[in-house]
Amino acid sequence: MRELELSCSIDGRHYWPEHLARVQHDRHLHVLHEMKRLGAAIGYAGKLLSHDDINRLSAEDAREACIAARQSYDVDGIKTLYKEQLRTSDQMWKDANDAPDGAPMRAAFADLTVTGITIDEFRENATDGDAFHSNYARINPDHYFLYGHEAGMRAMETFGMYGGPSEVDVITDPDIKVPVERETGYRLLTAGYTTLAGDGTDINVLAYHQFKPLTSGLAVKLGAFFPPKTPKDLVDGHAVHMAIEFWETSKLLAAAD
After folding, report:
1. E strand or H helix at 10
2. Quick one: three-class SS letters along the chain?
3. What is the rounded radius of gyration, in angstroms, for the C-alpha atoms of the chain?
């Protein structure tokens, strides 16, 4: 595995890899507890785990147990397990859009630099739907499934480490209008908008990620925009969510050698 280095800044604060790892450990434990509370049988290393057992899992054991638990369900199964949370999240997004015309969107940003992988390697992985689907649960504790859909990509994830998961369609659109300018030198852009999977409601959640090649790596400006009444904790949490997602994807690329 190649050696990687990370520089990450969110709202003027520096995040070391150890910080992102701590957040992930907490979220893996949280998801395991939630799944168990909803009726899932949580097992690891040949035994069923109690809530107390879950609390004693190391970071690596919690990660592997959480990935296995989420991947043990097919799409219909995980949606059934979280059906009440999905319904609540649908309403949350509709409420978040109930704002006067012209009300400003809320924004989450994370600036990262990773040395040890190239922008071409990242582009190939990001555009490989099969690879992204198979690794989706591994790159963030709050990811449940992602697959190709007639509207784009259908995904189930918890935005911003807030509340329960949402089921959404993500539609690629490099021409979406966002309240930021394209940065000079960031030659790769991935952008799009989001609708609810259930009834197709456009929830005004936009992704706008810019990538710049460096001599020994790449820089990325991760951006997400949310409707005006989105809970602030969700918006702030999603900046960290995006940073984890990008850093874990980078580590998977480096480990693939």
Report:
1. strand 5-10
2. CCCCEEEEEECCEEECHHHHHHHHHHHHHHHHHHHHHCCCCCEECCEECCHHHHHCCCHHHHHHHHHHHHHCCCHHHHHHHCHHHHHHHHHHHHHHCCCCCCCCCEEEEEEEEEECCCHHHHHHHHCCHHHHHHHHHHCCCCEEEEEEECCEEEEEECHHHCCCCEEEEEEECCCCCCCCCCCCCCCEEEEEEEEECCCCCEEEEEEEEEEEEECCEEEEEEEEEECCCCCHHHHHHHHHHHHHHHHHHHHHHHHCC
3. 18
Distance between first and last Cα of the chain: 6
Looking at the DSSP bridge assignments, the partners of residue 212 are 219
Report the amino acid identity of residue 243. A
Pair of tokens at residue 181: 């300018």
Q: What is the pTM of this model?
A: 0.96
pLDDT in tens, 79-108: 999 999 999 999 999 999 999 999 999 999
- List of residues 6+ apart from 30 with CB closer than 8 A: 141
Tens of pLDDT along 192-217? Answer: 999 999 999 999 999 999 999 999 99
Q: For residue 123, which phi and psi values (nearest 5 degrees)?
A: -60, -45
